[in-house]
Amino acid sequence: MLRDDGYGMIKWKQTGGGFPAYGLDFGNPDCIDYARSYGAQGVRIERTGQLVEELESAFAEGGLHLIEVPIDYSENEAVFLEALQQKTCIL
Questions:
Q1: Residue 6 has what DSSP assignment?
Q2: I need a labelling partner for 35 at 20 to 30 A (CA). Which of 24, 81, 86, 90 fits?
Q3: Dist. CA 91–CA 75, nearest whole Å
Q4: 91 domain-assigned
Q5: Which residues, in sequence order, are bridge partners of residue 68?
Q6: In 10 A of CB 69, how many CB atoms?
Q7: pLDDT digits over 21-44, tens only?
Q8: Would you list the DSSP string of 7-26?
Q9: Which CATH number fits the domain that encloses residue 48?
């Protein structure tokens, strides 16, 4: 499960296009607790490199697992907006 506490991708695209970001931020439910309430295993990724460890552990254990991965779109601005604005397209 990807968690960005709103419509993050839409937000950075709107902001990059010079439009205001309105109504795109909200809190996610605690999906780890929700998964556990149904008997699944749940873990939240909190550091770089943890995803591979958690995936390997989930496959080794078997059963149903939910892994919550926080998404940070700040690099998208540098890569997709600033870098692309510096390039020109010739058709």
A1: B
A2: 24
A3: 28
A4: no
A5: 44
A6: 14
A7: 777 777 778 889 989 999 999 999
A8: -HHHHHHHHHTT----S-B-
A9: 3.40.50.970
